[in-house]
Amino acid sequence: MAVPRAKTSKARTHRRQSINMKLTAPTLVACGNCGNPVLMHRVCPKCGFYRGRQVFAPENNG
Amino acid sequence: MNHKIGYNKLNRVSAHRKALIKNMMTVLFKHERIVTTKAKAIEVRRNAEKLITRAKEDTVHNRRLVERKIRDEAILAKLFKDIAPRFKERTGGYTRILKIGFRKQDAADMVVLELVDYKLDTEKKAKKGDKPAKAEKPAAEKKPVAKKAAEAKKPAAEKKVAEAKKPAPEKKAKAPAKPKAEPKAE
Ligand SMILES: [Zn+2]
Asked: What is d(CA B103, CA B174) in angstroms, rounded to the nearest whole number?
């Protein structure tokens, strides 16, 4: 039966796993109303606008 | 052959799912806007649009068919007498889904599901000054968007006037928060 010749080192393990650990930054665009960076196709959480239309009242804490 | 004709079962058994959709449709017609998850919104929309189409023609037969889904007499009457006539000229597409981000608790994709002629009532008067400014900026970015945005603004301006007449708007805006909670509880 085939058996590993040596223990896999931490470095090797991490190197292998790192390929799938990459994080991708979300693509942001400027809100058409207030310029706040927002996710595409989503209502601006700051001013409540989407495509020139007020969807909900903006939050006061902003 | 009934292939590729699917729908989202929403992780519920059929009775549970039917009850959920009935409840949410009733609330949608009551408040004309609900906040929910994207998956639920899509399933509610496909059912609700069929009811609106059915309600355009006010017959005993249609009333009975719709009544199976809307078990509230007042809301049934509203659907036939108020909502459906408003969409007389529209052949489908009575509702709109707007994505509003992710819920903090479980990162669910949350959306606003509303009738397309829904009018946002709160604070509009105070923000009149903001609207023209918005109109110009989106127009500069993308032409097609700008056109639609411009169209949307005009009706919005008219709505403001309409709202001024009706002093009840604040209730509606706040009410949608409740419908959220009910479907979740189930
Ligand atoms: Zn904004």
From this structure: 18
The shortest CB-CB distance from B99 to any of A41, A49, A52 is to A41
Q: Nearest CA to B40 among B103, B129, B132?
A: B103
CA distance B167 to B158: 16
Q: Which of B151, B153, B150, B152 is nearest to B139 (CA)?
A: B150
CATH of B1-118+174-186, one of 3.50.40.10, 3.40.50.2000, 3.90.1030.10, 1.10.418.10: 3.90.1030.10
How far away is chain B from the Cα of A55, in angstroms, using its nearest Cα? 7
Could you tell me the pTM of the whole model? Answer: 0.68
- Per-residue pLDDT of A28-55, as tens digits, reads 999 999 999 999 999 999 999 999 999 9
Q: Tell me if A50 and B98 make a contact (CB, 8 A cut-off).
A: yes
**Structure tokens, B186:** 């189930």
Under DSSP, the state recorded for A39 is: E
Give the single-character DSSP code of B9.
-
pLDDT < 50 positions in chain B: 124-186
